[in-house]
Amino acid sequence: MANASAAGQGAAAPPKAIEGGMTLDFATILGVAGGFILITSAMILGGSLGSFVDIPAMLIVLGGTFMVTSISYTVREVIRAQSIMMRAIIYRQQQPSDAATQILGLADVARKQGSVLELQKHLQNLRNQPFLQKAVSLVVDGIPPDDVARILEREVHATMNRHMKSAGILRRAGEVAPAMGLIGTLIGLVQMLGRLEDPSTIGPAMAVALLTTFYGAVLANMVFTPLASKLERNADVEAQVNQIYALGTVSIGRQENPRRLEVALNSILPPSERVSYFD
């Protein structure tokens, strides 16, 4: 059970803001870097690392993957997805249990002070959490709770859809990269078979044929698809955190007992992350 601090005991203390600082995901770094280190080590131990570098093969796979993926989306969306890839490594970490404790603290303040307007003093502390700040602002502004619930629900869905689109672009790139590798293999084989009378051209053509398949498999299975899965995981966590904030702010707007809110929040949290704010 995740226990809250003494905020739930005695007078209502100002709820501690969750800083949500940028966090390095060491699992992603270890997986990607470790995988490439292992492959590079195998290359070096088996021969020359330079034999695995081929510019035409890189152009076919990297350039081809970018161009074909942009057919399914817009160029702007594809470029944006490349920057979003960094979110799988560096992201703003928020745990659902911490979010539940924070919203219970806000509910406790509003309950003990007898007015939701008291929460206006805490809006500045929520500047690093735009969703929660917006949700509390809606309640403070006197928007009916049912309208607040609808507004926040639409925002949760819109945010989730944006994240899923970015993950979908990476998954599409993961599908295209092996296909471009196969196309490069066919190009290399055609070049090789068309110049059999010149033995000096067989090696470079065969290198293109094999390395394009290699590059495509590495990009798809070690970069694009795993990062898409991590983005989807992070999006699920963010959606759960936002749902907790939405549920809490609507409860505050309805001036419900915070203990009732605690029960409602624990019903959507895993047993290991449930909070005991008022115990």
Query: Main β-sheet: number of strands, strand sense, barrel status?
Result: 2 strands, parallel
In the sheet with the most strands, the strands line up as 1-4
Low-pLDDT residue spans? 1-12
Going by helix content, strand content and strand pairing, the class is mainly alpha
- Helical stretch tally: 8
State the end-to-end CA separation.
Answer: 11 Å
Compute the number of strand runs: 4
How would the global form be characterised?
Answer: elongated
Element pattern in H and E = EEHHHEHHHHHE
Average of the residue pLDDT scores: 84
Beta-strand percentage range: under 5%
Helix content: 55-70%
Rg: 26 Å
Overall description:
- This protein has 279 residues and is mainly α.
- The longest helix has 52 residues.
- The radius of gyration is 26 Å and the shape is elongated.
- It has eight helices and four strands; from the N terminus they run ββαααβαααααβ.
- The protein has a two-stranded parallel ribbon with strand order 1-4. The chain has a two-stranded antiparallel ribbon with strand order 2-3.
